[in-house]
Amino acid sequence: MQLETPLDTVKHTAQLASDNGIMVILDPAPAQQLDDDFLKHISILTPNESEAELLTGIPVEDEKSADKAASYLLAKGVNTVLITLGFRGAFVATEKIREMITGYKVASVDSTAAGDVFNGALAVSLSEKMPLLDAVRFANAAAALSVTKLGAQPSAPLRKEIEEFLKRNP
User: Fold this and answer.
1) Nearest to 87 by CA among 70, 69, 108, 68
2) Where do the structural domains in the chain lie, given as residue ranges?
3) Cis link prior to 131 (omega < 30° from 0)?
4) Which of 45, 51, 90, 166 is the most exposed, having the fewest neighbouring CB atoms within 10 Å of its CB?
């Protein structure tokens, strides 16, 4: 989910899914303050640097500050925090994991939908039971490919493109 849908709808859906054991992935965009009760229903939160700062009050500039912001969000009840850092990658935080998954430098043309592509690829890979860190690598690759094309829908790569990119860029 993301926050372009009315917040009350997103909150209700997250609670319903959470109460029924369904994973809830939230891209908190467009950024806004979120209450603690809502955050407790989020399985995976995927803010970028500015969204993480708005949610925590902690400027995210590097791995250390990403860890600090992620720890704050984990303490609010989120199970997993993935702070996306553009070409630098994504910082992964759970109760047991604190790891920076390196991103990919590509010739960026348009970042429209990069977050949506990251989240979609993450959801697909996790639904296929891919381990979390591998799923984040897959999502990073998908987002990297998406910024090499103009537009939103046209920039979403095919699975074959992602897999080929990962073979060339392990």
Assistant:
1) 108
2) 1-102, 104-170
3) no
4) 166
Alpha-carbon dihedral sign for residues 141, 144, 145, 151: positive
Q: Give the whole-angstrom CA distance, residue 69 versus residue 90.
A: 13
Provide the strand spans (E) within 13-157.
25-26, 44-45, 80-84, 89-93, 98-102
Q: In what order do the strands lie in the sheet with 44-45?
A: 25-26, 44-45, 80-84, 89-93, 98-102
Say how many residues make up the chain.
170
Locate tokens 């994973």: which residue? 23
Contacts of 130 (CB under 8 A, 6+ apart): 138
pLDDT by position in tens, the chain (length 170): 999 999 999 999 999 999 999 999 999 999 999 999 999 999 999 999 999 999 999 999 999 999 999 999 999 999 999 999 989 999 999 999 999 999 999 999 998 899 999 999 999 999 999 999 999 999 999 999 999 999 889 899 999 999 999 999 98
CATH architecture of 1-102: 3-Layer(aba) Sandwich (3.40)
Whether pTM > 0.90 for this model: the answer is yes
Catalytic residue among 8, 27, 116, 134: 116
CA 3 from chain centre, in angstroms, equals 13
